[in-house]
Design brief:
alpha+beta; 176 residues; 30% helix; Beta-lactamase; globular; 6-stranded antiparallel beta sheet
Length: 176
């Protein structure tokens, strides 16, 4: 995006997405910012086989476009809802994002341009994405009819089973 616009990624995301959608609890912190700006839960990470370590204060800029953003679940729900409702992109661009290929993330997952489709246990599809950075994991998605759910977890044991439980909670919320 920077090469195309000639502007810093953080500025473009803030202008084109955060401000446009009124996401009041979302930011793209600058390099060096280690504190989350608003009230938040602490994040914990297990390094190797050690005890959980509080990693709440960290500079997320190492994640850049893949993990530098900080948001609340409600803002993520608003983002996914606006995206799927056509309030963020023209229909042709959204259709291109939704053109998917099979993904080996979990059974039935398909990946498009920054958007993952997942079959719901109650039928239909949810569209979303997750994010991980030490201490925090999120999984969120929305349906075509406007239901949205995001789950944020502040510590998971390092296992595929734990991540599957987070996806199951999102599925349960969207199917309830």
């Amino acid at each position: 995006m920077q090469r195309v616009t000639g502007r810093p990624l953080a500025e473009e995301i803030t202008t084109r997405v955060i401000d446009r959608l009124g996401l009041r609890h979302t930011s793209f912190p600058p390099v060096g910012e280690q504190r989350i700006r608003e009230p938040h839960p602490h994040g914990y990470h297990v390094f190797g086989t050690g005890a959980p370590v509080d990693v709440t204060e960290l500079d997320p800029s190492w994640g850049w476009a893949a993990g530098q953003m900080v948001a609340t679940p409600s803002d993520l729900n608003a983002f996914f809802g606006a995206l799927l409702d056509g309030k963020l992109l023209p229909a042709a661009q959204l259709a291109e994002m939704k053109r998917t290929v099979p993904a080996e993330m979990w059974p039935g997952a398909r990946y498009g341009l920054g958007l993952v489709s997942m079959p719901l246990s109650c039928g239909g599809l949810a569209w979303g994405h997750g994010g991980d950075i030490p201490g925090y994991e999120t999984r969120g998605a929305a349906t075509e009819d406007g239901r949205a759910a995001t789950v944020a977890v502040t510590m998971l044991p390092p296992s595929d089973e734990a991540e599957a439980h987070v996806r199951q909670v999102v599925d349960t919320a969207l199917c309830s």
